[in-house]
Structures are given as structure tokens and as C-alpha cells.
Amino acid sequence: MTFAVTITREPCSLPTLVILSGPLLTYGLAWSGMFLLRSSKFRLFAYTLIFASFAHVRFIQTLTGRGDELILAQQWFGISSRAIVALIVFLIGLPPVILAYRAIANQRRTLVFICSWLLPLPVLFIILISNALLFGANGDEIQVATLLGIPLVVLIVDLIASALLVTLSTRYLKEEA
User: Fold this and answer.
1) What is the pTM of this model?
2) How far apart are CA 69 and CA 58, in angstroms?
3) Which of 7, 8, 17, 73 could disulfide-link to 12, CB 3.0 to 4.6 Å?
4) CA dist., res. 51 & res. 66, Å (int)
5) Which mean pLDDT values do the consecutive 10-residue runs of the chain (177 residues) have?
6) What's the domain count of the chain?
7) Diameter of the chain by CA atoms?
């Protein structure tokens, strides 16, 4: 597992499940946020989930030849065209983004939306560049320490992100109650 793609090592008894984990988490967060937008109590948290999930920009990594979606599309449907897979990925991420736009109750709705959509792009590019530097062009040259096959740098970043999500979300939910 790297920042951008999951590569299973032999012997792996559930390789498809491992490859599905990234997209399921990403789209699961975005779509959960979309459904939470209905609640006035959780609307800001839901909006944050949609854009923090990076589901709306996953198509970019697909266009660059990375991403679990390319592997799954090839395995399941025999589709190897980056453009077609990127279009499908874009369309999967579109409904939460559209509803997030509609949920903005600000006079500068379009500006807020554009910033929300585009501000994660520098972070995505940093992730893609660091992924290539740490794990090689194909993501299969792990040259760093691992724990259970997961590079420590990925594990640490994921743990920090999870801790921040739990800490900040519980703080936000307590203030709203």
C-alpha cells in the first residue's frame, strides 16, 4: 500500500478486497457526507467529508496511470483505457460534489465551491510526487521500513489523519449538541 495505489504481495488470499479498500473508503466518505448533508446539525461536517475524501480528484491519478480503479477496471471489465476509467471515476465522485454545491448557503457560493474543489489539488500532487519518490514509478519498489507490509510512512500519515478526524469531528459534534 502506498499513498496512491495498493499492490498486494504474494501470497495474498484476498487481493481484490485489498485493492478495493482505497476506493471504498474514499467514495464511502464522500457519499456518507452527501447523505449527511440532509441534517442541519451535521451539514458542515458532511461538506468537509465530501472534499476531504479526495473522491472528486481521484480521476487525476487515474489519468496519470495510477490508482486502484485502473487495476479493478482491467480485472473486472477488461478496460485498460485510462480516459474511460478516469471518466467513470469522475462520474462516481460527481454526485456528492453537486449536492455539496447546492448545500452552500453563502452569497459567494461559487467562490467557496471552487476553492473547496481546487484547494486539495496541491495536496494531491504532493502525494503523487512523494509516492513516486518513496515507492518508485509503479509503486512497487518499497525501499522504506514496513510493518505488516505497510510502509511506516504511510501508516504514520494514516494514523495522524485518523486521529485528527476523530478529534476534530468529536469536538465539532460536541459544540453542535
Assistant:
1) 0.66
2) 9
3) 8
4) 20
5) 57 73 86 90 86 81 82 86 90 92 87 84 76 70 72 79 78 59
6) 1
7) 55
